[in-house]
């Protein structure tokens, strides 16, 4: 329980930072300077007005100085990140995998929101994730004080390259339906899915297309989208990867059992 609480609180803090990332990175701005300020009166946000969720509630969703409304999305992102971090700890427990999967949870939040907002997956986040994710998974494979698992790391590398190649082929065949941001993200997600296992790779990849297709169909049926409407696919890749990580093995087993 202690670990769940700690990672949940960490997630709240990270979620506050991710709000900055989601706003600034697509605009090519620094995420560390200048300090956050009100866009209307330009008053800098004091530390006591920047406590995740609590400050927004205390201020009733308004700037302390000019009372400009503050979007409800800020506390929602903070709370969602906290819950996602806590859920990640429940999934992997006390292990060297925790840093790797907390990092995945963090980029899942910011890439999902950025892709929804601007229909883009910034290289500034995706490309460094190869190095960061790979290094953290390598640490988990080394497993200081425990039993090393180089096979999992090799499987992760093969799955990452394979999923990248698969999406690259789709982008070449149908460039209007698949962006190269999706291709680059596929390699990162392949690393994590491969680490979990081949069942996770298959289920995670398939779930992205299934869920994204269902969402697009629903939008079309309710008149919110047409054949030429661009729907960001990155969020569905991330959701599909989550399905693969959490439930890839039981889903694959149930599917194979149904065939026999």
From TrEMBL:
Its EC number(s): 2.1.1.-, 3.4.23.43
Claim: RNA-binding is one of the keywords in the record: no
GO cellular component: plasma membrane
Coiled coil region boundaries: none
Xref: Pfam families: A24_N_bact, Peptidase_A24
Its membrane topology: Multi-pass membrane protein
GO biological process: methylation; signal peptide processing
InterPro entries: Peptidase_A24A_bac, Prepilin_IV_endopep_pep, Prepilin_pept_A24_N, Prepilin_peptidase/N-MTase
One GO MF term: aspartic-type endopeptidase activity
Catalytic reactions of this protein: Typically cleaves a -Gly-|-Phe- bond to release an N-terminal, basic peptide of 5-8 residues from type IV prepilin, and then N-methylates the new N-terminal amino group, the methyl donor being S-adenosyl-L-methionine
Location of the Prepilin peptidase A24 N-terminal domain: 9-90
Location relative to the cell: Cell inner membrane; Cell membrane
Transmembrane segments: 6-25, 74-94, 125-142, 154-173, 204-223, 235-256
UniProt KW keywords: Cell inner membrane, Cell membrane, Hydrolase, Membrane, Methyltransferase, Multifunctional enzyme, Protease, Transferase, Transmembrane, Transmembrane helix
Domain annotation Prepilin type IV endopeptidase peptidase: ranges: 103-217
Function: Plays an essential role in type IV pili and type II pseudopili formation by proteolytically removing the leader sequence from substrate proteins and subsequently monomethylating the alpha-amino group of the newly exposed N-terminal phenylalanine.
Family stated for the protein in its record: Belongs to the peptidase A24 family.
Protein name per Swiss-Prot or TrEMBL: Prepilin leader peptidase/N-methyltransferase
């Amino acid at each position: 329980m202690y670990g769940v609480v700690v990672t949940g609180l960490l997630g709240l803090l990270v979620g506050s930072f991710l709000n900055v990332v989601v706003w600034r990175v697509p605009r090519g701005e620094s995420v560390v300077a200048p300090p956050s300020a009100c866009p209307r009166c330009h008053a800098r946000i004091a530390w006591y007005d920047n406590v995740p969720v609590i400050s927004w509630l205390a201020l009733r969703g308004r700037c302390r100085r000019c009372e400009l409304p503050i979007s409800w999305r800020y506390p929602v992102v903070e709370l969602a990140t906290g819950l996602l971090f806590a859920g990640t700890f429940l999934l992997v427990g006390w292990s060297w995998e925790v840093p790797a999967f907390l990092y995945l949870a963090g980029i899942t939040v910011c890439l999902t929101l950025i892709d929804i907002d601007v229909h883009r997956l910034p290289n500034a986040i995706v490309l460094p994730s190869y190095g960061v994710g790979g290094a953290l998974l390598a640490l988990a494979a080394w497993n200081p004080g425990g039993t090393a698992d180089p096979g999992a790391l090799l499987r992760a590398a093969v799955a990452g390259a394979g999923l990248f190649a698969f999406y690259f082929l789709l982008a070449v065949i149908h460039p209007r339906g698949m962006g190269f941001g999706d291709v680059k993200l596929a390699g990162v997600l392949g690393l994590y899915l491969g680490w979990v296992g081949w069942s996770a790779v298959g289920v995670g990849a398939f779930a992205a297309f299934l869920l994204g297709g269902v969402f697009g169909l629903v939008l079309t049926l309710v008149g919110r989208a047409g054949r030429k409407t661009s729907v960001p696919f990155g969020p569905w890749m991330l959701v599909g990867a989550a399905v693969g990580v959490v439930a890839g093995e039981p889903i694959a087993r149930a599917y194979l059992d149904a065939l026999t």
